[in-house]
Every structure is written in structure tokens, then in C-alpha cells.
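Minutes, project check-in
Item: structure for the 205-residue chain
Input as provided by the requester:
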Amino acid sequence: MRILTVLLLLATSAAAEVVDRIVATVGRRVITASSVRQQIRVAALLDGAPAEESYAAFEAMRDRLIDRLLILEEMRISRYAIPEGGEVQPALDREIQDAGGPAKWAELLARYRVTEEQIRLSLRYQAAIVRFTLYRFRPAVQIGPDQIRTYYEQRLPAQPKPAFEEVRDQIEAVLRREQINGLLTKWLAEVRQQTHIETYEELKP
């Protein structure tokens, strides 16, 4: 009877365990359901938005994590280092300040069910990807004066419109970011075709 009782307890314990599911594989790397849900909460906290738990949000974040793995793998091959934790401390300090101080920050972490280390790691990845993207694609971007003038005339609101020279540098920066993002999107599409990627449906994000 004692052995039977122990077996029943073990069976009950095993049934109560939540098994993390693999929702994507990128080459030999895996993405789990829990990592996607965690990153949804991290991104929501950093964006100051509610953590959306819909399947569409889950699927979108899964795809973002696939892209992140592809970029991080390219960084590894290129020996491009991820920033150390101390390098993103100013960004983390701003988040804490914007939250209203350490006490409010702790409340925010608890509400979103994330840790400060998870936030720090996400900031490190963000900084690394932004730097690497600029390093990789910025040399290929060329912004001509005609492009800046066209943006000013066609894409800025008609009224009130500041003087062209006042916004010239800002327009050039916007166009540069747009071209870099376009090159990154094209590159990711090409790398996805060259990488064995599988996704698995997760019905309950």
C-alpha cells in the first residue's frame, strides 16, 4: 500500500507539471512557448503597453525571436560582441526613472511577471542588433538631395511645414533608417530561405 501511495503521488505530481513546448526551431536552436510568452511581457513593459495574450501576438513574437536568432547567429559568425550588462545600465536606469523610481519599478516587474535581469538581457539584445544592423547595412545606404527634397514636399504635412533647412538633417536620418530597415528585411528574407526553420502551432499562448 505504501508503494502504491508513493506511485500515486508521483503520478499526480507528473500530471501537474507544465511541459514547455517547442514552438520553433532555427537550425539547431529552439524557441519555446515560455520564452515567447516571456518576451511578450518584456516588450509590453518596455513599450508601456498591456501584455497581449492573443494568438496573433504570440505568433508575431515567435517570428521576431526567429529573426533575432538569425541576426545573433550572423553576429556570432562575424565575431560581433553583444554589449555587456554595464553598457545598457543607463537605458535600464531610464526605465526605472520613467517608472517612478525603484519601488514603482519593482511593482511594474511584478505586474508583468518579469525580472530585472530579463529586462537587462532584452536591452542588451536590442542594443546589439541595432549596432550590428548599422555596422552591416549603413555603408550601402546613399541619400541624395533629391530624395530629401521629395520627402519634404510630399511626405511632410502641408501645414504647418517648417523651413526646409530646419528639418533637412532629420529627414535624412529618417530616410537612412528606412533604407537600413529595408535592407535588413531583405537580408532576413534571404537568410530564412537558407536556414532550416520549422514552426509548430501553439494553441494557448
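Outcome recorded: The two ends are 41 Å apart (CA to CA).
No further action items on this chain.
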